Every structure is written in structure tokens, then in C-alpha cells.
């Protein structure tokens, strides 16, 4: 299974095409819309989120609520496009540079300058329209389809804010999936501890007031994965590696860790590795889950626990210095609108890119053109490994 996305931030729409999903899997628009609407929530977002109401149009690959086995095409329209028709519409390029809103001033922390050098564009709007995180709408749409597949296979996945600006949403690791789902309801910023939620919102408000931005840590938790998904035999079949790549590819993500992650560097082996146990009821399991559900590039059958670090939003009301590529003069980058914190939204994006990688690995391991047969194969595998 694979997917592609297309679309500019202020263009007509975001488009997603998914190929390789088996036939006869139940899926509805609501399954996808629920995810899209969750991505729009969260304290700290700018004015754009008040303009958009992301709803999917399934335009291919689904009929009467079931997948056909053909490519699935999904469209989410950009409501903001109506304000940008002169700049992003199909009319011949306007002569007036003000109408075209030509961008010659690269913003620090964005793709603007590197992208302009690479593609030879002197108008950096050609870069920023695509490098914008608006594209994560299309990725969440793809992930929502993958998440639906996982749900039908008894695999639950949830993404939530772990911390914002150093304030921990939850300071415990022993949370049930129900607790995690509660925290994940990203509006405005959730914690099981009301005080922590308030502190995170205050930190966002303060950053906004100061013309600054803040980042944080997101976590994704997956329950119900059987052991042995992924592979150790080749670097590009290691599922933890693929998940890390997908998480790192989210706009503004700067690092990924599984389980205790970087903490492992400061601990002895006896404090890191998870002892193996067996019971009739559960089959093989681990006494602890410090390695976050992976050994040897394969799932261990324990929950997958993966964290991603999001840097503070790069566009600031407090301007940063840059250089105009036409005049080579120094200027202070000023802005019209921006998010001051998008960590809650990014947690939803992360949940969905992880869902896609997991669903893809399952389909590689249990290839089947028909969903009911895939489900049977997974159920049989689960029975087999319990008594292995
Ligand atoms: C959900 C989401 C919303 C974002 N909103 C903004 C924003 O409003 N302003 C901004 O400057 N960057 C925003 N970003 C981050 C930029 O897209 C990102 O930093 C930029 O494209 C450069 O990519 P890099 O940080 O991965 O190198 C957002 C990222 C995410 C995931
Ligand atoms: C549109 C979304 O996020 C956008 C991501 C983004 C960026 O530079 O990444 C910049 C902002 O866009 P604009 O300049 O139009 O206000 C965000 O609103 C979205 O998440 O749907």
C-alpha cells in the first residue's frame, strides 16, 4: 500500500490517492472526517483554522461504504482559496507583483530559501505553498483510512500531547488506552491533570503575547499489534525505522524515540531490556516495555510507544533577520498570521502517519486483495503465535 498527496496551501484543494488497499473493507466519510476535524483543534492555532472546515469528499475507490480494491481518491477543499484566486487561480499570471504576492524574502526555519535554490524559483511562493503543513490534511486523510483498517483488525492507535514548552501533560507512564484517548481529545490542550492543561495553555498564550512560538513532544501509542510485524532481514524492512522516517517527515519534527529512547544512553543494559514471560492466556509478553514495542525492527507484541519532538513554529511575530534574494538587503521577517503552537494538531498528524506505516507493513506481511481474508489470516496468525 502506498499513497501520494498533491495540493498547495492556498490552492483549490488537498488531494490524496491511496493504492493497494484490499476490497470489501467498510469505510465511511465519517471515519475520515473525525480525524480531519481532530487535526484542526488545539489551543494556539492562528486565524487560518477559523476559515477552514476540513471535510473529505471520497471521489474514487469506495462504493456503498466498502472499498473496491481500486485506488482511493480523497479531496479536502481549501476554504481559504476563495481569498487567493488572484494569487493561486488559473488566470494568466498577473503582471502586478503585488497581486501575485511574490515572495523574495525567505523566512528562517522554513523551506523557502533551500527550496528556491533547489528548484530555481525566484518567487518563493512556489515553495511555501507546498512546504506548508497544510499538506498534513492530506496525510491525515490517508492515515484515517489506514486507521480504519487497523480498527477492523483489533488494533487501536492514539496520538496525544506529551508535553508543551517543557510542561508535561501527564507525568505517568502507566496509562490505559482509555486515558490516552481522553488526553488525545486535543481541544484546547488536554491532560488528565487540569492544572497541567491550564499551564500548557498559559505557556501558549504567553508565547503568543511575546510574539514568539513554542514546541513540544507528541506521543503515539498502539495496542493490539501481534509480534513479528516488520523484519530484521533488511534495513528498509525494519518497521521501527520506517515509523521513525514517517514521524520525522512531519513538518517541524526534529527527533523521534521509541520507549525510553535517548534515556537508554544513560542506563545499564539490565535497566533497559525487557524480560520475556509466557502465559497460556497471553502467549509471550514482556515484564516491562522500555523498548516501546520493538526488537530487531519487528513488533514484540507489546504496545508501540513512539515520541516525536516538534520545534517551535518558525514564523514569529517577533521578527527574525533574513536577506531579500533580489536586493541582498537585510530585513526583519514580519508576518500576517501564524500558529503560535501546533503541537496538539501535530499529535493527530503523527497518529495518522504511524497508522499508515503499520497498516502498510501488515499488508506486506499478509498480502490479500480481499479484506475479510486478510482479517482471517491475521486472526489465524494471532492464534498460532500464542502457542509458538
Ligand atoms: C500542524 C502544523 C501546523 C503548522 N503551522 C505553522 C504555522 O502556522 N506557521 C509556521 O511558520 N510554521 C508552521 N508549521 C511548521 C512548518 O510547516 C515547518 O516548520 C516548515 O515547513 C519547515 O519544515 P521543517 O521545520 O520540517 O524543517 C506547522 C507544522 C504543523 C505540523
Ligand atoms: C493551513 C494549515 O496550517 C498552516 C501551516 C503553515 C505552515 O507554514 O506550515 C502556516 C499557516 O498557514 P497560513 O499562512 O495560510 O495561515 C498554517 O495555518 C493547516 O494546518 O491546515
TrEMBL record:
Keyword NADP appears in the UniProt entry: yes
Names of required cofactors: FMNH2
Pfam family, one: Chorismate_synt
Residues engaged in binding FMN: 130-132, 251-252, 296, 311-315, 337
InterPro entries, alphabetized: Chorismate_synth, Chorismate_synth_AroC_sf, Chorismate_synthase_CS
Domain of life: Bacteria
Pathway: Metabolic intermediate biosynthesis; chorismate biosynthesis; chorismate from D-erythrose 4-phosphate and phosphoenolpyruvate: step 7/7
Record's subunit section: Homotetramer.
Protein name, per record: Chorismate synthase
Organism: Gracilibacillus marinus
Amino acid at each position: 500500500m502506498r499513497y501520494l498527496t498533491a495540493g498547495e496551501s492556498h490552492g483549490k484543494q488537498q488531494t490524496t490517492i491511496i493504492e493497494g488497499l484490499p476490497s470489501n473493507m467498510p469505510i465511511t466519510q465519517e471515519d475520515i472526517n473525525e480525524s480531519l476535524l481532530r487535526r484542526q483543534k488545539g489551543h494556539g492555532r492562528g486565524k487560518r483554522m477559523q476559515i477552514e472546515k476540513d471535510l473529505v469528499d471520497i471521489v474514487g475507490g469506495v462504493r456503498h461504504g466498502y472499498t473496491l480494491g481500486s485506488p482511493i481518491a480523497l479531496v479536502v477543499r481549501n476554504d481559504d482559496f476563495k481569498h487567493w484566486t488572484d494569487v493561486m487561480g488559473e488566470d494568466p499570471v498577473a503582471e502586478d507583483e503585488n497581486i501575485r504576492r511574490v515572495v523574495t524574502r525567505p523566512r528562517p526555519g522554513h523551506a523557502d530559501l533551500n527550496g528556491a535554490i533547489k528548484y530555481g524559483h525566484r518567487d518563493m511562493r512556489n515553495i511555501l505553498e507546498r512546504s506548508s503543513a497544510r499538506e498534513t490534511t492530506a496525510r491525515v486523510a490517508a492515515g484515517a483510512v489506514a486507521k480504519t483498517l487497523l480498527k477492523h483488525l483489533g488494533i487501536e492507535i492514539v496520538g496525544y500531547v506529551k508535553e508543551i514548552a517543557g510542561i508535561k501533560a501527564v507525568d505517568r507512564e502507566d496509562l490505559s488506552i482509555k486515558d490516552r484517548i481522553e488526553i488525545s481529545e486535543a481541544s484546547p490542550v488536554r491532560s488528565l491533570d487540569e492544572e497541567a492543561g491550564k499551564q500548557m495553555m498559559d505557556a501558549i498564550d504567553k508565547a503568543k503575547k511575546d510574539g514568539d512560538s513554542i514546541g513540544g513532544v507528541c506521543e503515539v501509542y498502539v495496542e493490539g499489534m501481534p509480534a513479528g510485524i516488520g523484519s530484521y532481514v533488511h534495513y528498509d524492512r525494519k518497521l521501527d525505522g520506517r515509523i521513525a522516517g514517517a514521524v520525522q517527515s512531519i513538518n517541524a519534527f526534529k527527533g523521534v524515540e521509541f520507549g525510553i529512547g535517548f534515556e537508554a544512553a544513560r542506563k545499564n543494559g539490565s535497566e533497559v531490556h525487557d524480560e520475556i514471560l509466557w502465559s497460556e492466556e497471553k502467549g509471550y509478553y514482556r515484564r516491562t516495555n522500555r523498548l516501546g514495542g520493538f526488537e530487531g525492527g519487528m513488533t514484540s507484541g507489546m504496545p508501540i510507544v513512539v515520541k516525536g519532538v516538534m520545534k517551535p513554529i518558525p514564523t514569529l511575530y517577533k521578527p527574525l533577520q533574513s536577506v531579500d534574494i533580489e536586493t541582498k538587503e537585510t530585513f526583519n521577517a514580519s508576518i500576517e498570521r501564524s500558529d503560535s503552537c501546533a503541537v496538539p494538531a501535530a499529535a493527530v498528524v503523527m497518529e495518522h502517519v504511524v497508522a499508515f506505516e503499520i497498516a502498510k507493513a501488515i499488508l506486506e506481511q499478509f498480502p490479500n486483495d480481499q479484506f475479510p481474508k486478510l482479517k482471517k489470516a491475521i486472526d489465524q496468525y494471532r492464534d498460532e503465535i500464542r502457542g509458538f
